[in-house]
Design brief:
Layout lengths: L13 H23 L12 H30 L2 H17 L3 H9 L1 H4 L7 H7 L4 H7 L4 E3 L5 E3 L20 E2 L7 H17 L11 E5 L5 E5 L10 H14 L2 E4 L9 H6 L4 E5 L3
Parallel strand pairs: 2-3
Antiparallel strand pairs: 1-2, 4-5, 5-7, 6-7
Helix pairs in contact: 1-2, 2-3, 2-4, 8-9
């Protein structure tokens, strides 16, 4: 019986709750994508704001599926078979466009388990097959958004996938794939060489006055980007980016992104705020 004191409950209309949550999480995903196209926000010290937004994007996309599950249950209860089939078809297309989404979300949310090799899904299957938990934890550790390639994620050893969702703006342009990892020692040497090249080119590398930002990703690759602050010299970001690229090339260091492996328009990409991979040119 209905308690007359309780004149409203979300349990009365779960479909309305689901639609409301879908709107919230869809807009959360859209906002994360828009922020990931912007330069990193320097107000949070050395952390990359775009990496934070990438994590939020994964969680938001997974939350959409939880909301759909709530609709599924309500449609079954009402016996609306055709509507249920339509929702199921859309849900299947979404999952096919982002395979592995649930595993990546679980790894981010339940990091306390995954850091020990005690995670569900692929970690559990590896452990059940006889692999040491410590080894499994190492294999499945690390999540990264690559600002040099729009909406590119890597999560070893299995990526989310490379297919696109044709129907959702929230996943437009999303492309997820693995990328080879660098070596820590090589990364440190590259960082030292980059700083030396910038100094030789008359560009400061000190934390207080530098207009450049060097970040080491979880793949142990060094990335360089322009800071988004109020320095007067940044009024002409194109000129500054051109000086940086020239100084690095003079030292046999090139800037790369996954979108332009042939080094096309690296000046324009750097000026726009993208973080580009620093790589020593083989001799």
């Amino acid at each position: 019986m209905t308690n007359p004191v309780v004149d409203w409950s979300p349990a009365d209309h779960p479909e309305a709750i689901a639609l409301s949550e879908i709107q919230w999480w869809q807009r959360t995903a859209e906002l994360a994508l828009l922020r990931m196209d912007d330069p990193d926000d320097d107000r949070i010290s050395w952390f990359s704001s775009r990496q934070i937004d990438a994590r939020q994007l994964v969680i938001a996309l997974r939350q959409l599926l939880y909301a759909v599950a709530l609709i599924d249950g309500h449609l079954r209860k009402l016996g609306l078979d055709q509507a249920l089939r339509d929702v199921t078809q859309a849900q299947d297309a979404f999952k096919q466009a982002l395979p592995g989404l649930a595993d990546v979300r679980n790894a981010l949310v339940h990091f306390d388990k995954w850091a020990l090799g005690d995670g569900r899904g692929p970690q559990k299957r590896r452990v059940d097959a006889g692999a040491p938990a410590r080894e499994v934890a190492s294999e499945y550790w690390g999540f990264e958004y690559d600002p040099g390639c729009r909406h590119h994620f890597s999560w070893p050893p299995n990526p989310l996938g490379e297919r696109r969702s044709p129907s959702r703006r929230a996943t437009r342009g999303s492309r997820v794939s693995g990328c080879p990892r660098g070596r820590p020692r090589e990364c440190r040497q590259t960082g030292a060489d980059v700083k030396s090249a910038l100094i030789a080119g008359g560009l400061s590398t000190s934390d207080g006055s530098s207009l450049t930002r060097l970040i080491v990703g979880s793949d142990n690759k060094l990335r360089l980007s322009l800071r988004a602050d109020g320095h007067a010299e940044q009024r002409d970001r194109g000129s500054l980016a051109n000086r940086i690229v020239g100084a690095l090339r003079a030292a046999d260091i090139r800037l790369l992104s996954h979108e332009t492996p042939d080094e096309l328009d690296v000046v324009g990409q750097l000026a726009s705020g993208r973080a580009l991979i620093c790589e020593i040119v083989p001799r």
